[in-house]
Amino acid sequence: MATVEERVKAVTARVLGLDSKKIRPEDNFTEDLGAESVQSIELVAMFEEEFGIEMDEDAALSVTTVGAAVDFITNVCKEQGVDVEE
Amino acid sequence: MSTDKKRHALVDAVRPNFLEEVFPYDLPPLIRLKGPVVETIDGQSVQFDFGAVRSRPIVITDTTFRDGQQSRPPYTIEQMVHIYDLLSRLGGPNGVIRQTEFFLYTKNDRETLDRCRALGHKYPECTGWIRAVKGDFRLVKEAGLKESGLLTSCSDYHIFQKLKFRSRQECMDSYCEVVQAAFDAGVRPRCHLEDVTRADIEGFVLPFVDRLMEMSAKMPEELSVKIRLCDTMGFGISYPGAELPRSIPKLIYKINRECGVPSSRIEWHGHNDFHKVHVNGATAWLYGCDALNSTLFGFGERTGNPPLEGAIMEYIALKGSLCGIDTLVITELADYMRSIGLPIPDNYPFAGRAFNVTSAGIHAGGLRQDERIYNMFDTGKLLGKPPRVAITDKSGADGVVHWVNEFFGLRDDDRINKIKVHKMARWVIDQYEQHGRLTAISDQELEVKAKEFYPDYWAKYREGK
Fold first, then answer.
1. B425 vs A: CB within 8 A
2. Which residue, among B23, B17, B47, B20, has the nearest Cα to B34 in the 3D structure?
3. pLDDT exceeding 90 applies to what percent of chain A?
4. Which of A36, B63, B241, B393 is deepest in the core (most CB within 10 A)?
5. Contacting residues of B for A48, CB less than 8 Å apart
6. Residue where one domain finishes, among candidates B282, B308, B339
């Protein structure tokens, strides 16, 4: 099974039209990866779909970097009893 | 004037102060006035107590069927009777909309009046409107009306250029003959001082009003002359310091205090040629004129008159309560007027289809958090129209989610969040970025997409509606 980080990068690449290999944990979704307003919403929606979780809207949208998203999603998965590869 | 600067210390707070004593939300924002207000008139400082308006018996009068019809094709009898009925409901049992005036010249005019009165409403009282011709009082008398307006134009433009009098004296004598004819017919005359804001106030208007007061003194109170101050061309100025004849404060002061016409017998009739029509009317109230003449949605000769619904909101704001007014009727009237072909601009305050609709995503975001942020008062409760968003490329996901929640009527915990509307938000953005759209997306288009993207919500909240 792919790790949370790999899956987050894959979703990010698909939504934003990027090469997943070039996405780094420290990348900021908006400033480095160019996510526009609606794309931020789409990212959160796609993360929910990918991991089978539900995230708090405000908390999820306040996450700014790929690495922070990995941590945030990992925690939500734990809280909601979803097994993931860390 | 002092030029000393003053330091202002921050009043820190961890809880918001929404200033609800001024912005109660379930009412239009209140207008709290503290006096005195000082105006210099003829070199003397004169004080006005604006705060007294809260207890003064100010009223709204209506001329939708007279001036309001001078800017559009005639209403049918049925239309006028229905509008009259709605006006009565709007103004409520206290008669906030106190009077409305009717032409009396044609068979249809008289039938309309009869049918309106047959409804049995106490308010608005029906009054007439006639030329300054003695014989016309026969019409008023035959109609059984107690009061009628009559044209007593008072600028030299009217006296000499329109009415062709040879002198002001001849003009005044002629007017007074008609007023006497009204008295003789047992009809209260309401003298419409046409073009008063372009008249010689000291040289003609005040001497004429003095004479009317002398004539009235010999008559019972119920027949005494009323004065309608007609700002025929919209020249009136509300600010202190303006000079006569354009100054509304000075004009009302002189009519009220120098000529002694009680406030209850003074009425302001404005026009909107300079975009001043509503505030001029409210100013007249504050300076001592009790009646503000208006028309529904401001329709009237040329640029129109004080909008009645604006006067209604001002009234509530000044009084601090609804006073029996049913504000929901404003929306009913607007819908009815549109249905009979009267155009009301979409952005027209209180009544336009989009008066509280935003298309800015940032405003939609605010509305989603707390509708009070971008809604002036509880428009859902008072006008039956909660705030809405119009969807464009500027709406963002905030706008889309607000639209979706309003469309499905979702409240509180049932409201869906932005994440859930990402497909619809994407579709909206693509309309502009991929398809080059330049217009707003209509509700009908969005409804189709709402059904497509949210079949469960559609089945639960829209099926059968």
1. yes
2. B47
3. 92
4. B63
5. 419
6. B339
**Least Cα separation, residue A50 to chain B (angstroms):** 14
pLDDT value, residue B368:
73
Distance CA B97, CA B100 (A): 8
Token pair for residue B19?
């200033």
A41 touches chain B (CB under 8 A): yes
Note the pLDDT tens digit of each residue in A13-30.
Answer: 999 999 999 999 999 999
Cβ pairs A/B, distance under 8 A: 30
Which residue in chain A is spatially nearest to B430 when comparing CA positions?
A: A38
Q: Is the minimum CB–CB distance between A55 and chain B shorter than 8 Å?
A: yes
A50 part of contact set with chain B, CB < 8 Å? no
A61 contacts B422? CB cut-off 8 A: no
User: Phi and psi of B206, rounded to 5°?
Assistant: -70, -40
Q: How far apart are CA A80 and CA A15, in angstroms?
A: 24
For B444-447, which contacts have Cβ atoms below 8 Å and span 24 or more sequence positions?
B446/B391, B446/B403, B446/B407, B447/B407
* Same domain flag for B321 and B380: no
For residue A75, give both structure tokens. Answer: 């925690």
Query: What tokens were used for B18?
Result: 């929404």
Residue of chain B whose alpha carbon sits nearest to that of A42: B422
Same domain, B181 and B237: yes
Q: Which of B73, B31, B115 is nearest to B283 (CA)?
A: B31
How much is the pLDDT for B406? Answer: 86
Interface pTM, i.e. ipTM: 0.91
Residue of B nearest to A38 (CA): B397
Coil, strand, or helix at residue A8?
A: helix
At residue A79, the pLDDT reads 95
Which domain covers residue B435, as residue numbers? 357-462
Spatial contact of B180 and B216, defined as CB atoms under 8 Å apart: no
Residues in chain B, total = 465
Domain count, chain A: 1
Tokens matching residue A86: 């860390």
Mean pLDDT of A22-45: 95
Residues 380-409 of B with CB under 8 A from A: 396-397
Which residues in B lie closer than 8 A to residue A37 (C-beta atoms)?
Answer: 361, 396-397
Nearest CA in chain B to A44: B419
Q: Give chain B's domain count.
A: 2
Interchain CB distance below 8 Å, B422 and A37: no
Flag residues of chain B having pLDDT under 70. Answer: 1-2, 361, 464-465
